[in-house]
Write a structure and sequence with these properties.
The chain has seven domains: 100 residues, Phosphorylase Kinase, domain 1 (2-Layer Sandwich), CATH 3.30.200.20; 209 residues, Transferase(Phosphotransferase), domain 1; 120 residues, no CATH class; 76 residues, Immunoglobulin-like (Sandwich); 63 residues, no CATH class; 68 residues, Immunoglobulin-like, CATH 2.60.40; 71 residues, Sandwich (Immunoglobulin-like), CATH 2.60.40.1120. The chain contains 17 helices and 43 strands. α13 crosses α15 and α15 packs antiparallel against α16. 25% of the residues lie in helices and 33% in strands. The chain is flat.
């Protein structure tokens, strides 16, 4: 049921139901009404009361409305209105009954029905249209120069009918924006930034293109590309931009997509597609060259299946709302909530927030890439310098660093709500006084070195606080805990330093949390250490203090993770073994990540080949090459009806059960298969051999007797992808598309040829009707 204070009249709108709540704004499903029963459902995004006096945030909210309102495109969520009511600004926007792309991908994986590569490509094709429109939009004759800067699955919403729309231009860069990002500040979601965005460089549309490439890579592989355990590690991964081909991670991804995706993800933007439009054009060319049945990849039935319960719930809500009475006397009230509490209640996972990071983070990340310091050392220094909780990444400092005078800095946070039918990111700006300081990164790196040599970095940061007139009232909680441990132990001067791998692990000593160092220990004292981290086995050990300054390493072992890999070989007919156990015909092997397995290949009539391999979760295909073995393949052909006769112009054809098998084929070779049966139309198909074990289906259609067709004339429409030359009953008719008019009713033979490839089709023409023949020659 809806909350008791809804529905409510709000200015010229009626608020029906609150569907999301962020740290800075709240989202309502609403409607507007007009004459003669006119109604239109919309969404109201309204600033929370405690942000109405925040001038910087209000300006950014206005910018979002101003930028998006100039964009009218079917692949962008539309802005209808911007106004204020009861001293609170709001945006009225398009209502999309659906879910964000992140929720869709996760629901598909959870239900065991991930989207197909073709469906993923279709979504990117649609997004490319909307994004290219935004990049090239002009207003009053002047280019807007929009760069979204926050492209991610959270900011893509899809209707249950399969419409794809981009939303949330809250931190978009545009020529007419009133608020400007301070030099050196990085805005966006770390896991979807481009290398130039992560470095705080000037951006153009190719930065958004890089984000699209990340999204497509992740959708195809079902894995995250750059995500690390912290924002810092994620930024480091982005700066490296090491991207494996999607097909090497998921063998079901067509290899032809690798080049398109990798080009979009080139580290140097000059090596990417020239524009998002070019990227979309390449995807479109692949899509229509490889998808023969558009209905089979339609998103509407797919979304209706995986979101069946959500759709039914929405229908129930609509019914309830039609029966509600409306109190026009007051607007719905919102309880007073502190911004910190609201943010904590609605914040997404740390890795998927929209953040504004100071330039010092980027310089530190680049220092790490140069190999000068370890990641842990830099992270500890950054955490101490900004008060960041670095263990779990729950808090990211948003103050702007850099050599600046006193003034107001801006930072951005995005909070996602997955409830309701319109998940929405809420982006806001926080203000704070930025004290003048000189070369903050120098202080950070100096502190790192001090941490490395003696652990006295805290003193340095105390000095920094004093210099910046920021008195420090207490030590970090982790150090208080360490002091508590020391206080409860026998008095002494011994120090125990801990090196932990992974750095994010939570460590306790005698049951109390510690952070890298325990002081006040006595020789001979025993300390019980426990370390835990997600995805790792629990570590337990008892250490005896034997030295004044003692160091111990805690290395957690990853939890056993079982994966399925596929073993293949170039030796046709060879038997495959893993640790002496024969594998099935599909070559599938289940093993734990990190496990060493001996693979043996026994080719017929040849010597066995053995290889030891280490199982990896990012290497689902293991190929064992046998020297001298021909790279041969076999093609399994299923024919319906299965008693049809089959011929092939290459390889050796044999009957095996209900199928035909063509063996002795070479990888890359083309083979033409023809199937015939009395009472059915002949079927011919040419296929390119792409792997060692390939399969295809030939389905014969029943023939229509010529004398059963009444006399008369009709038309034949003939087309081919990408093109083909056509002849009808032996008479050339030109190049597709071709419409042959005035053809006698009855059966006719159509021959389509492209290069060396020829296909024959039979078609029956009925009086005053059009027969259609469409053939797909692929990209050949």
């Amino acid at each position: 049921m809806a909350p008791t204070n809804l529905p409510q009249k709000y200015g010229k709108y009626i608020l029906l139901r609150k569907i999301a709540m962020g740290g800075m704004a709240e989202i309502f499903r609403a409607k507007t009404i007009g004459a003669e029963g006119f109604e239109k459902q919309i969404v109201i995004k309204r600033i929370l009361p405690h942000f109405t006096d925040d001038e910087a945030f209000v300006k950014m909210f206005i910018d979002e409305a101003s930028i998006a309102s100039k964009l009218q495109h079917s692949n962008i969520v539309q802005i209808y209105d911007f106004d204020s009511q009861d001293d609170r600004y709001y945006i009225a926007m398009e209502y999309v009954e659906g879910a964000d792309l992140k929720a869709i991908v996760e629901r598909g994986l959870k239900s065991g029905r991930p989207m197909s590569p073709a469906q993923c490509v279709w979504i990117m094709m649609e997004l490319s249209k909307g994004l290219h429109y935004a990049h090239t939009k002009e207003y009053n004759g002047q280019p807007l120069n929009i760069v979204h800067r926050d492209i991610s699955p959270h900011n893509v919403i899809m209707s249950h009918s399969g419409e794809v729309k981009l939303m949330d231009f809250g931190i978009a860069k545009a020529a007419q924006r009133s608020t400007k990002t301070l030099a050196g500040t990085v805005k966006g979601k770390c896991a979807y930034m481009s290398p130039e965005q992560a470095r705080g460089k000037a951006l153009d549309g190719r930065s958004d293109l890089f984000a699209l490439g990340i999204m497509l890579w992740e959708m195809l592989t079902h894995k995250r590309l750059f995500l690390g355990d912290s924002d810092f590690e994620t930024l480091s991964n982005v700066l490296k931009a090491d991207v494996p081909p999607p097909s090497s991670v998921n063998p079901e991804v067509p290899k032809e997509l690798d080049a398109i995706v990798l080009k979009a993800l080139a580290k140097d933007r000059d090596h990417r597609h020239a524009s998002v439009e070019d990227f979309g054009r390449e995807l479109t060319r692949w899509f229509y060259s490889n998808v023969q049945d558009l209905e089979s990849v339609s998103l509407k039935p797919y979304l209706h299946e995986i979101f069946r319960e959500d759709i039914e719930r929405l229908r129930t809500e609509y019914t309830e709302e039609r029966q509600m009475t409306i109190d026009v006397g007051s607007s719905p009230s919102t309880p007073a909530v502190s911004s910190a509490a609201a943010a904590a209640a609605a914040a997404p996972l740390p890795s998927d927030r929209t953040v504004a990071l100071p330039g010092g983070d980027i310089q530190a990340a680049e220092t790490l890439l140069d190999g000068a310091l370890s990641q842990g050392q830099v992270e500890r220094a950054l955490a101490a310098s900004r008060g960041q909780v670095s263990n779990d990444g729950a808090t990211v400092a948003l103050a702007v660093g850099g050599a600046q005078g006193p003034g107001t800095g801006t930072g951005t946070g995005s909070f996602q709500q997955g409830t309701g039918a319109f998940p929405q990111g809420h982006t806001g700006t926080f203000t704070g006084q930025t004290p003048q300081r000189t070369s903050p990164i120098a202080w950070i790196l100096l502190a790192v070195l001090l941490v490395v040599v003696g652990g006295v970095g805290w003193v340095v940061f105390k000095m920094m606080d004093a210099q910046n007139n920021r008195p420090t009232t207490s030590a970090p909680p982790a150090r208080e805990a360490a002091a508590a441990v020391a206080a409860s132990a026998p008095a002494g001067n011994a120090v125990l330093e801990l090196k932990v791998d992974p750095y994010s692990a939570k460590v306790t000593a005698d049951g109390k949390p510690v952070d890298g160092k325990i002081t006040g220990l006595a020789k001979g004292q025993k300390v019980a250490l426990v370390a835990e981290a997600p995805g790792y086995e629990r570590f337990e050990d008892t250490v005896t203090i034997t030295e004044e300054s003692q160091r111990e390493t805690i290395k957690l072992k990853k939890e056993a993770q079982e994966v399925t890999v596929v073993v293949r070989t170039n030796a046709e007919g060879a038997k495959l073994f893993a640790d002496g156990r024969e594998l099935g015909a599909d070559g599938k092997l289940k093993a734990e990540v990190g496990q060493e397995v001996e693979i043996e290949v026994q080719p017929p009539g040849g010597e066995s080949v053995k290889r030891k391999v280490t199982i990896r979760d990012d290497q689902p295909l293991i190929t064992i090459e046998v020297a001298g073995a021909a790279a041969l393949a076999k093609l399994a052909v299923s024919v319906d009806p299965n008693d049809a006769s089959v011929t092939a112009d290459a390889g050796s054809l044999s009957r095996q059960g209900d199928s035909w098998v063509i063996s002795g084929l070479r990888i890359g070779e083309k083979v033409t298969i023809e199937a015939k049966k009395s009472g059915y139309r002949d079927e011919t198909k040419t296929i390119k051999v792409e792997n060692a074990n390939q399969a295809m289906i030939l389905e014969l259609k029943k023939a229509v007797a010529a004398d059963s067709v009444p006399a008369g004339f009709g038309d034949i429409f003939i087309n081919a992808k990408p093109w083909a030359k056509v002849s009808v009953d032996g008479t050339p008719k030109g190049t597709t598309p071709v419409t042959v008019k005035g053809v006698k009713s009855g059966r006719h033979t159509i021959v389509l040829s492209k290069g060396s490839e020829t296909r024959t089709r039979s078609v029956t023409v009925k009086p005053d009707q059009r027969a259609t023949v469409v053939e797909d020659f692929g990209g050949n």
